[in-house]
Amino acid sequence: MTLLLAFSALLLFAVLVSSLANRTILSTAALFLLAGFILGDGVSGLVPLTPGDPVVATLAELALFAVLFTDGMRVGWADLRSAWRLPGRALGWGLPLTLIITALAAHYLIGLGWIESLLIGAILAPTDPVFAAALVGNERVPPRLRQLLNVESGVNDGLALPFVMVFLAVAAGSADLHLGELGLELGLGVLIGVAVPWAAIMLERTRWFSASRHYEPLNAVAIGLLVLALGKVTHGNLFLAAFCAGITVATFGERQRESFEEFGELVAELLKLAALLVFGALISPALLASVGWLGWLFAILALVLARPLAIWLSFLRSGLGTREVAAVMWFGPKGFASVVYALIVLNSAIAAAEQVFTLVAVTIVLSILLHSSTDIVVARWFDDERETPAWHGAARRARTRLRDGRGARDDEPDETS
Question: Can you give the pTM of this predicted structure?
Answer without folding.
Answer: 0.76
